[in-house]
Amino acid sequence: MTRNKLALSLAGLLLAPIAGTAFAQSAPAAAQDQTQPASNQSNTKQLQTITVTGSALPRVDTETPSPVTVITAQQIARSGFTTISDVVRAVSADNSGSIPNAFSNGFAAGASGVALRGLTVNSTLVLIDGHRVASYAVSDDGERSFVDLNTIPLAAVERIEVLKDGASSIYGADAIAGVVNIIMKPGFKGVEATADVGTSQHGGGFTRKATLLAGGGDLDTDHYNGYFSVQYQKDNDILANQRQFPLNTGDLSSIGGSGLAGAPGRLAGPNGAIQNPTTGLWQPLQACTTGPLVTVPGQGSWCRYDAVNYNGQIQPAMEQGGIYSRITIKINDTTKAYLSASFNQSKLEAPTLSGNSIQTSTPINTNNITLPATNPSNPFGVAAPISYNFGDIPSGFNYNNHAARIVGDVAGVVGDWNYDVTGVINHTWLNTTQYGFITYSGLINAINNNTYNFVNPSANTGAVRQSIAPGYDKTSTSDLDTLDFSANRELWDLAGGPMGVALGAQVRHEAQDDPTLNPATINPLTGLPTLEFEGLGNAHTKGSRDVTGVYGEFDMPLLESLELDASGRFDHYSDVGNNFSPKLGFKWKPLDWVAVRGTYSKGFRAPSFAENGSSASQGFVTYQTPTSFQANHSAAYNLPYALAEFTQANPNIKPEKATNFTFGVVVQPTSWLNASLDYYNIKKTNVIVQADTSSALAAYYAGTPQAPGVIVVPDVPDTGIYAGNQARPAEVIGEYINANSLKTTGVDLDLQAHFDFSNNIHYISELTGTQIFEWQMQFPNGVTQNYVGTQGPYNLSSGAGTPRTRASWANTIEYGPLTVTGTLYFTSSYANIAEDVGVGPGMCLVTSPNGANFPLSCRTGPTYDFDLTASYAINDHISVTGSIMNVFDRAPPFDPADYSGAGMNYNPTWSQSNAIGRFFNLGVKVKF
């Protein structure tokens, strides 16, 4: 009986049109082959057993008490995806906190991560062949550790198993939401090469990819098998001005949103503007080159500047490549060993949206910078306020990530025990180059010494620009070294079959060293250390620890129809102490075609080095003051702006704990239909979060005391008739805390049906979906925040929100040498509210200039994406492939609040393929 298929009516299935779906089939497969060479009849049985993710015991019946979805290499090929990141993040259980490659302005830019159950990337454990992988060297939001999916090559992948259940009882920390286990090919003979090119219908994004897989040797006859794979892919960038409204502009005035003419101090653009000290009116420093002259009564004139259209980027330029090699040796009839080595590199170019402006709030507020009377760019003869964006100094980041990994394994049989010993050495290093960010000291020197020409930027020398924006390089590293030992055997026969036991132990060393992104210098105004670069967030993390763990598992087939499974793991952390995680599971088959299953488990997540080490981070979220505040301030002061959030590590932080239980039904009423429906319920306690920003802001506006350790720093006050009114918040400072609890519940639906018709036509339909019932956080003060179906938690990663439903449906027709697959992906709509930044029901994250919700519905619509792929085998050695992604060229739903889209009014976490538009791929595959 295959796993994870939900029972749907046959009539509904047959009437449904053939239009795509989830390629992520739930079909039986192994997490790791645990086959042992046969030396006698009892060992022969082991050749037919596999180990499924979430269990340490090999088994013949691959349907375990836990829900596991398997994505085969064939399904991956039919999806049209070319990276592990795209494959894994398309799983319907991936939700809030997921990290897309398109989020290029976050701390973890250049990386991609999966967040099962919406519990963020640090609660999903990613394994390769059942063993841990080193984390990305930079933490998401400066807090969360995760594995970068971009550093795992796709060419040598045999399958991917997604365990949608807690698994700390086997794997230890981080497996609260589930496990993604990427299984590499155990061996390969022959030569297989591919070459692909692709391009977007609307311009930009040209991609090319090539892979080579070659190997030889036979374990039975040659006593060895060895192979290697090489993969390379390069994707060009896609600019915002290559797409249609509203992706190509920051001016939303035509649909009731904010325009570009309301804030000379923020949107003056590369042309710059200066304020007449006598009249108080603004005027441009030079002739307009970025747009027409704009005049606003009572404020003056300046050049229109659309930063999104000028510098916006839908897709960053990215280049990935790597090599994976493996050799397996059959030592004798009962023992074999393998050694694998891999190296992968991923580069990403991420220019900032609008360059860097004089006007910033942190670390030193420069909103009221003036040009002295002696500066040649000042026409007034007295000091005058200036607004300026350094358009002649491009700014951004270049990321170059590397991952090297060596694995050695020996497996065999001693007596009645099957054993496996594995050692892993994994090191990553990330080179980050920051360029174009201005320093306060460089800016003041350039102004006071008249070295920078504001009127004619082209006259500035490279040395002058370098003195204002010197740039900065850093190298961040992470390490994971492990030694694993496991053994299993049959104990005695029960009514349903032999009882099995597995025992294991692990020793590992973890380390992370991420230097500061924004080094400190002495503030000339206060004499105190202050971050050097203006308007740039910061994070630094350093820590290491040793972990020792032991675990055991018992599988008890009490009856032919009833199986019980019990497991538990004890871990000792050198920095946070001890933890024990148990798990119980059952599977009951009252009928041959029906199985009822369930699990109950305890899990935990140890604090990351960013959360409990000598670490801190400062990031920014797009924020707009509440309407009650806006009534007492000017229109320019009320525009959305970057609110800084500074969070410090807490050495007394406690590990997160979790209680999970699942309950499901698996049915196979006929040979052509497999289905499952599984309910999940996860409750976390001691959840580690930043200080509650919403409560801090509410207290600030109300003038009431803040919680201990929380500070709200005000911005420079508004001027004119509003002078003296409360200033808007510029920064919220706090430390990580253990919030009270987090709870999420929902169901997973999986279905596969297949039909054989005349003329050798084979049809496969696969459906997967996840529905979240609740996702809520309760803080120590009793405040409860509900996020499901909203854009909260907004402070999390890219602020992508928590869609209630994600689903996919794939339909494949095989006709001789031709295979055609259509896949439909769906993500439900969500409200543009977020309680974690003080925006609840009736309070939209973005409002129009007159204070109304924007959009008026305060919702972002659902996302649909239909992909079509095909392959045709010309002969046994050559086949051609092609795909049309986003066949119907459906545009992304409008989302002006999402900041991961860098102001381009869509949500790249769920709608990136829609922003790219219709995309064509063509390839060839050769094998011998």
Automatic annotation (TrEMBL):
User: Which subcellular locations apply to this protein?
Assistant: Cell outer membrane
Give the matching Pfam families. Answer: Plug, TonB_dep_Rec_b-barrel
Q: Which residues form the TonB-dependent receptor-like beta-barrel domain?
A: 360-887
List the SUPFAM superfamilies hit by this protein, alphabetically: Porins
Motif, TonB C-terminal box: chain positions: 911-928
Q: What is its main location?
A: membrane
Give yes or no: UniProt keyword Plastid: no
| The TonB-dependent receptor plug domain, residue ranges | 63-179
Q: Where is the signal peptide?
A: 1-24
- Provide the membrane topology annotation: Multi-pass membrane protein
Keywords noted in UniProt: Cell outer membrane, Membrane, Receptor, Signal, TonB box, Transmembrane, Transmembrane beta strand, Transport
Q: Which family does it belong to?
A: Belongs to the TonB-dependent receptor family.
Q: What is this protein called?
A: TonB-dependent receptor
